Amino acid sequence: MKRLLTLAASAIALSAVPAAAQDVAITNATVALGDGSEPIKNATVIVRDGKVVAAGADITTPADIPAIDANDAWVTPGLFATVTTFGLSDVGAVSQSNDTRAGGSPFSAALNTAPIVNPNSQHILIHRAAGITRAATSTMPSGSIFAGQGAIIDLDGDSNPVMRERAFQMVHLGEGGARLSGGSRASAHVLFRAALREAQALSGARGTPQTTEISGGDDVLLGRFDAEALVPVVTGQQPLYVAVERASDIRAVLAMREDFPRLDMVLIGAGEGWLVADSIAAAGVPVIADALDDLPESFEVLAATQSNIGRMVHAGVQVAISANSGNNPRNMSQAAGNLVALNRIPGAAGLSWGQAFAAVSSVPAAISGYDGKAGVLTPGAMGDVVIWDGDPLEVGSVPTMVFISGVEQSLESHQSRLRERYRDLDESNLPKAYDW
How confident is the model at residue 383, as a pLDDT? Predict the structure, then answer.
């Protein structure tokens, strides 16, 4: 047993060593650039030193780069998932392995996701095998309307998955915020505004934290660390992700800029966003929405429709598909495919293939601060490339190869190993848990 543990530890140590980027050319492929354009037949993708150097038709493959003949397979940039809890849990029902919520913590906005991301989490391995190469990950609200500060991570499995810590702050309003703040939206908005004003009191004229204490004595609602964590939000240095669904709640959130003009907001959910799409577009606020949210399952989404995303996009809103569409982030591409199929239904509003794929690649990357750097196959972008065995927006298609920053990744996980273990259903043998 000791020898087995030693070997396992050695394997983990080796997997933690960053692999060198590969120079690779993928030829004879159907290539989706991820920028909203339609796929290109008989195309080539070239990655050198971990970056994309060329992608498209009529590209000559350099003689010094190994080539992979895709044989007309689909090739795309890696998917970008947002918002997730990747790396924060392994078994949701086992509290010891689940760091997604901190209901008993004295902190809320100050919570920092970055130090607790586990690169060996099975959730990371499983979703990497589904073509997701980068993600936004964050704790979820439980003791306060503020969830804390999320991080942008890669899924390459090395010992340092965090690309950028404190990448955004998250707050829940609407029904969720009401529950967490005393049972009413009125209470949630008072708490929200008071928290931002406390952060303003700390920020000073130049937007830098001051050393003086917050005035107000017992009226101060946040601890010092939570208030300081909101300073980058009120000064516009850190995006604020606002989870809200109802049209009236969206209007109220957009109106916050009258009092806090520097807020850099992103709407999460926006189940009734289509009703106020023109207002969202005029405000220039991006949205991360669930593509499969089409039923009035709560009072805040009575106007839910699967045409929500299509109508917002047609109104000029920048919309990414939520990683939690269907409560399973690896279903993002399937959710995008549903929006393509929606175009065939009279009166419905879907997306073109290029728009739908961009909604799970370049658009969430841009919202996360990586416009032109992730989720696309354009010169200078990160060398995240996925080869699929079919159209990536079809439910039956899976990746056959995944590269992150030019490094080919393992597609193995507990799930894939269990599949192989029980592929042989010969019942004459003892159960596979036994070796004798």
Answer: 97
Q: Average the pLDDT over 410-432 and give the result.
A: 79
Can you read off the two tokens belonging to residue 178? 């009401």
Residue 205 pLDDT: 44
Q: Quick check: 113 and 148 in contact, CB under 8 A?
A: yes
Residue of 332, 337, 343 whose CA lies nearest to 310: 343
Tell me the average pLDDT of the chain: 89
**Closest to 335 measured CA to CA, from 316, 371, 311, 360:** 360
Nearest CA to 364 out of 162, 165, 77 is that of 77
Contact 190, 177 (CB under 8 A): no
pLDDT tens track for 284-337? 999 999 999 889 999 999 999 999 999 999 999 999 999 876 568 899 999 999
Q: C-alpha distances in angstroms, 46 versus 141, 278, 383, 433?
A: 42, 40, 9, 45
State both tokens at 95: 């509290």
Q: Which is nearest to 118 in space by CA: 61, 176, 161?
A: 161
- Distance from chain centroid for Cα 235: 24
The two beta strands, 40-48 and 51-56, are: antiparallel
Name 221's Cβ contacts closer than 8 Å, sequence gap at least 6: 191, 194, 195, 198
- The tokens for 49 are 């030193």
DSSP 41: E
Residues 6+ positions from 18 with CB-CB distance below 8 Å: 156, 158, 159, 160, 407
What is the percent of the chain with per-residue pLDDT over 70, rounded to a whole number? 88
Give 435's pLDDT tier (boundaries 50, 70, 90).
Answer: low
- 433: its two tokens: 């848990």
Structure tokens at 324: 């939690």
Chain centre to alpha carbon of residue 274: 22
Helix (H) or strand (E) holding 172: strand 162-172
Angle, CA 200 vertex, CA 170 and CA 211 arms, to 5°? 110
> How far apart are the C-alpha atoms of 225 and 47, rounded to whole Å?
43
Vertex 64: Cα angle to 62 and 65 (nearest 5):
75
Using a cut of 0.85, tell me whether the model's pTM lies above it. yes
Distance CA 215, CA 423 (A): 66
Nearest to 370 by CA among 325, 397, 405, 342: 405
User: Helix, strand, coil: what percent of the chain each, to 5?
Assistant: 30, 20, 45
